[in-house]
Amino acid sequence: MTTTLDRAPQPAVVLRPARLSLTPKTTLAGQLDGAWWPRSRDLEAELPPLAAALDETWGHITRVSVNPRRWPVVPRTVAVAGHLLHVGWFTEQDPDKLILLSYTVGRWDLLVVPPETEPAAAARLMAAAAIPGSVLTAGVLMANETVIGRGVRDSRSREAAWEDEGGACMSTFGEPFGRSALPLSANGWR
Length: 190
Prior knowledge:
Mean pLDDT: 81
Largest sheet: 7 strands, mixed
Strand order of the largest sheet: 1-2-7-6-3-5-4
């Protein structure tokens, strides 16, 4: 007697590609070897695509260290393409940096761009972290981006105010000038 079981095909786990920006191979050693922009703060979900992307160029990643301030759960190990990735955490480590270790190739430090970062800001951070020989640390890059991002937001709000005011001139105190406050031109028109 033969028994046939109807099994629905199991969906394959689809790994979305890691969003990475790596420094080109060069003799210039910098503070960072690139940047990684995860999609969430779930290390178990985010580390497999990262390791898969790096295994081809850097060899098997065997260990990762993070600062637990940025990751709500830090698992001890994560299964990655046929091997285990050991995860450690250190509160002394820069919270915006991920350290990757490989037995065969060495160590790499990556800036971790927060998942909630706007795409334009993430692009700036990823480009800055991939500059060969850069002396800027992960913390400095994040602080710089905070200032740049604030400037971009302020610029957008000033532009929106300009449009809302109908293009009225503004005083140095941010108040719109009324037409009567504008000086008379040589022909008497305002």
